[in-house]
Inverse folding.
């Protein structure tokens, strides 16, 4: 079996020779081979392909010059496996007669190399009749489909388009499982292969058909990609824009579209590892929620509960975060009856049980008295006693608007991620960005730094306010920053000044997140880091505005979840 | 706080609200730098390098002050053709380096990233995009990029073209040499020429291009003479000057002034003594600002960077009788085009011929084509039995290089080199 990576690959040629050829869509657990044989800082899809080829038994791989990482992958594979078949096709970026001739020549070179490798023979007539059959089949299918589609797009669904770099099935499945209707998938993995091949000059016309597919970002014609959206604008609610870690080509289009098109965009970045599923889940769910709210749909479903369990109705919101698990009980008039903050242990469900027990005790209630429980946060799906789940993005928005109705921009810095959320005047989420996978700019970063300075996390903030000297921590990476802090300690710098420098670094990261959703006045900060007066002071200085901070900044998400519960009961 | 940094802070301060003020400050700063290089260069700096220093600053200054005679390009664009139209190339790599020289790179890079440009993209590209978006760089008359070597080229120029309407020509360079590839390229060069004719109203003469290529050949011949002596002589430079060589070997190659400069290199080095320290061949880019590297290599007596391989990416003689074909061949056979094994073999050969004691390869943040080949370079150097140090960092964004890490690795490497000779 051969593998291939790119839609411009002439896989039908191999098919006609009876060779199995499969698109490589690896999902790996680590990059041990790739980090040694190549480098950590190259496209993660490329690294994953190398891992897969090293682990699985492929006879070879057909690659294209689609990007620098893949070009180097070819170099690496060829030197590692001299006995296998690797061919690098150079795809012209311009499509004209010269380019087609150039590509046709390469197809012929590839064919003769493969004939020599496999002992098989390419038969042009056989290929032609296979292609003609395929075309006939496609035509018949599309006729059938056209008859079947009654444009019955369910009214409660939102219409989403997928664009960007190669997109795995996970994202598509996530979307459909949240009742989102995928209008189109224009990533290279979503495009069908129906080519018309002429009976004369077979290979030339095939080369032309390949090159004339929807242009990917490496092609010169990509400038016109915006027109791809033309047929959908009346129905399209938002776009999920997918990129691959260390693949930069698509970020240009994202930056461009986001700036110019008046459409909600969600940027999702994956890295071909199994681990990234959880992180994209929150983003995709929150995005679907955002779009549903915009269309006036309820987030918690249609079947409203109205079981009165006592004199007063109570709802409970529980936010299962990486550092703390927080719970809030509200009565039907939206008064906070009790709240609880417990540290999240190794198992999120146990911490959730502890928080539930604690908050019920504080409220003097039993679980029987609670009409509805809404969970949120990273661990929201692992809370068995929750009736509904809503993402922490929507919950923070809800909670923030309830506490401070004038807030338009929320900065939430939690233990392992930070996010900026933009609200409209009604408190509905209109945009958000998240930063995770990297500890820079999160509570975890502060914890690491406090440890290096041998102070407690609680002291770090007050201490920094005594700072007299301006110190800059220049590294973005928390690992580098830690060694920078250590060398500052070695230089005998004052702890107050180093702490101030650390807070400036965090604030810098936070500011760039905020700028990505837009600096709209009425700022609120939530999450544990909001308790640090040092970070707050630097941020307020940079924003030129006071931050709204609730007395218990960690419970805003849980409060929002409980508020969703109250809405549910009406 | 040092003066440059304070100055840079002011440039950044105004970039958001008054780009014209920032622009003026960059201009004044470059004038000061030009004056400094002409009159106050360190006395250890050899004459030819002083000339080079001035050329680099002057070149950039001219581009900023005469945008109507300037083409924004990448490092590998066919500048020989621009010269025939009296146009000056301002490469986005060099422009970014200058902004980094003013310690402003963080502001412009952040600006690009906030728009949605990937943080993992090469810093030169992010910096250029941020600077153009901010309006601190006066818009050039035209833009030309080639697709070769770096993924960013086409995309960065397309983004700029779309967001700041500027007429752009993109040259698609195939990955390897073939006759068909040459004709595909020649057609594009002809298209470029007629576009420039239309733009400038000037008529292109093939003879003029031949003359440029003639001077380019002569320049390279002088450069080879220089390198021959550089094998043994002490001819001190700095990290910045090694990068500035790209003004001579790429952006201004073929001009009278550059020919004169290469002649000076070939003559000047004859007056210099033999070198007894450790000789280093540098691969790819240099982080000119990096304290530890500056300490060891800038005009140092113990360790000398003999040559930076990037300046030798094409050293073949150009066929002056077929200038367009020659330029096409130059692009196709550029050492950075095509498979990495060619480059690894060239570095090995270069290190051997230069009698280098060691090779340092700098993996610049975001540069996949160079990072992705590191393993092969290691293998090639192992065969050659010449020690190789791979450093990770960023050639222009200070936040992506960590001094502690670079210091430990570099010093350990230099200790290895010192001990090796102790044994001989």
């Amino acid at each position: 079996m051969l593998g291939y990576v790119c839609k411009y690959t002439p896989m039908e040629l191999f098919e006609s020779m009876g060779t199995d050829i499969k698109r490589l869509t690896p999902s790996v657990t680590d990059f041990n081979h790739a980090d040694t044989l190549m480098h950590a800082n190259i496209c993660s899809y490329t690294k994953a392909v190398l891992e897969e080829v090293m682990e699985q038994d492929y006879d070879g791989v057909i690659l294209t010059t689609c990007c620098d990482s893949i070009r180097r992958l070819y170099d690496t594979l060829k030197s590692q496996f001299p006995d296998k078949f690797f061919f690098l096709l150079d795809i012209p970026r311009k499509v004209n007669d010269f380019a087609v001739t150039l590509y046709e020549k390469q197809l012929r070179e590839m064919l003769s190399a493969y004939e020599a490798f496999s002992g098989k023979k390419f038969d042009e007539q056989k290929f032609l009749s296979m292609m003609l059959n395929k075309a006939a089949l496609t035509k018949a299918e599309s006729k059938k489909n056209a008859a079947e589609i009654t444009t019955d797009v369910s009214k409660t669904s939102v219409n989403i388009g997928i664009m960007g770099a190669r997109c795995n099935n996970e994202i598509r499945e996530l979307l459909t499982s949240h009742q989102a209707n995928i209008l189109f998938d224009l990533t290279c993995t979503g495009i069908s292969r129906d080519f018309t091949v002429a009976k004369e000059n077979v290979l030339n016309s095939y080369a032309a058909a390949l090159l004339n597919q929807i242009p990917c970002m490496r092609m010169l014609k990509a400038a016109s990609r915006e027109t791809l959206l033309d047929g959908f604008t009346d129905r399209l609610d938002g776009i999920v824009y997918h990129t691959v870690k260390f693949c930069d080509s698509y970020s240009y289009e994202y930056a461009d579209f986001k700036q110019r098109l008046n459409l909600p965009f969600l940027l999702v970045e994956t890295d071909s590892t199994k681990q990234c599923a959880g992180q994209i889940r929150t983003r995709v769910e929150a995005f679907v929620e955002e779009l549903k709210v915009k269309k006036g749909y309820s987030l918690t479903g249609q079947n409203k509960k109205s079981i009165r369990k006592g004199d007063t109705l109570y709802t409970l919101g529980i936010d299962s975060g990486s550092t703390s698990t927080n719970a809030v009980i509200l009565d039907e008039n939206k008064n906070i009856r009790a709240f609880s903050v417990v540290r999240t242990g190794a198992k999120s469900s146990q911490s959730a049980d502890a928080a539930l027990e604690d908050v019920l005790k504080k409220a003097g209630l039993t679980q029987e008295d609670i009409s509805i429980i809404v969970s949120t946060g990273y661990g929201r799906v692992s809370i068995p006693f929750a009736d509904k789940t809503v993402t922490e993005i929507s919950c923070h928005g809800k909670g923030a608007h309830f506490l401070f109705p004038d807030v338009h921009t929320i900065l939430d810095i939690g233990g392992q991620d930070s996010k900026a959320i933009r609200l409209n005047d009604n408190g509905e989420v209109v945009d958000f960005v998240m930063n995770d996978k990297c500890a820079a700019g999160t509570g975890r970063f502060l914890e690491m730094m406090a440890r290096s300075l041998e102070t407690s996390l609680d002291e770090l903030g007050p201490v920094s306010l005594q700072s007299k000297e301006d110190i800059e921590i220049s590294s973005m990476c928390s690992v580098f920053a830690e060694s920078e802090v250590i060398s500052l300690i070695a230089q005998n710098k004052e702890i107050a000044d180093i702490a101030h420098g650390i807070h400036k670094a965090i604030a810098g990261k936070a500011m760039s997140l905020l700028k990505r959703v837009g600096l709209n006045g009425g700022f609120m900060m939530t999450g544990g880091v909001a308790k640090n007066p040092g970070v707050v002071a630097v941020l307020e200085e940079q924003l030129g505005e006071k931050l709204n901070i609730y007395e218990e900044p960690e419970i805003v998400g849980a409060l929002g979840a409980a508020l969703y519960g109250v809405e549910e009961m009406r | 706080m040092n003066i440059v940094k304070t100055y840079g802070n002011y440039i950044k301060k105004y970039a958001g609200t008054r780009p014209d003020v920032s622009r003026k400050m960059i201009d004044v700063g470059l004038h000061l730098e030009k004056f400094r290089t002409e009159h106050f260069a360190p006395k250890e700096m050899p004459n030819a390098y002083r000339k080079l220093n001035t050329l680099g600053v002057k070149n950039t200054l001219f581009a900023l002050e005469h945008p109507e005679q300037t083409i924004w390009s990448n490092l590998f664009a066919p500048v020989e053709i621009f010269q025939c139209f009296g146009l000056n190339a301002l490469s986005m790599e060099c422009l970014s380096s200058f902004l980094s020289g003013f310690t402003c790179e963080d502001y412009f890079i952040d600006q690009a990233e906030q728009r949605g440009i990937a943080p993992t993209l090469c810093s030169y590209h992010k910096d250029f995009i941020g600077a153009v978006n901010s309006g601190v760089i006066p818009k050039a008359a035209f833009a030309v990029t080639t697709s070769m070597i770096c993924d960013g080229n086409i995309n960065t120029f397309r983004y700029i073209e779309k967001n700041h309407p500027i007429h752009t020509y993109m040259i698609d360079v195939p990955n390897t040499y073939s006759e068909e590839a040459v004709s595909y390229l020649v057609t594009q060069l002809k298209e470029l020429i007629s576009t420039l004719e239309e733009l400038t109203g000037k008529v292109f003469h093939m003879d003029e291009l031949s003359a440029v290529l003639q001077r380019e050949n002569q320049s390279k011949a002088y450069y080879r003479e220089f390198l021959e002596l550089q094998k043994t002589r002490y001819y001190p430079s700095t990290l910045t000057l090694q990068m500035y060589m790209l003004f001579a070997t790429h952006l201004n190659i073929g001009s009278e002034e550059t020919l004169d400069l290469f002649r000076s290199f070939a003559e000047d080095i004859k007056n210099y003594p033999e070198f007894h320290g450790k000789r280093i061949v540098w691969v790819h880019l240099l982080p000119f600002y990096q304290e530890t590297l500056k300490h060891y290599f800038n005009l140092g007596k113990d360790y000398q960077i003999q040559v930076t391989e990037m300046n030798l990416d094409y050293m073949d003689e150009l066929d002056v009788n077929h200038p367009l074909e020659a330029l096409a061949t130059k692009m196709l056979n550029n050492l950075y085009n095509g498979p990495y094994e060619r480059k690894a073999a060239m570095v090995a050969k270069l290190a051997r011929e230069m009698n280098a004691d060691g090779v340092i390869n700098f993996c610049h943040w975001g540069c996949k084509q160079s990072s992705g080949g590191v393993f092969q370079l290691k293998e090639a150097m192992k065969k050659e039995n010449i020690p190789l140090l791979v450093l990770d960092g960023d050639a222009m964004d200070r936040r992506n290089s960590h001094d502690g890490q670079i210091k430990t690795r570099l010093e350990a490497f230099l200790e290895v080199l010192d001990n090796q000779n102790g044994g001989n």
About this structure: Residues 195 and 209 of chain A are 6 Å apart (CA to CA). Chain A has a mean pLDDT of 89. Chain A touches chain B through 60 residues (CB under 8 Å). The two ends of chain A are 59 Å apart (CA to CA).
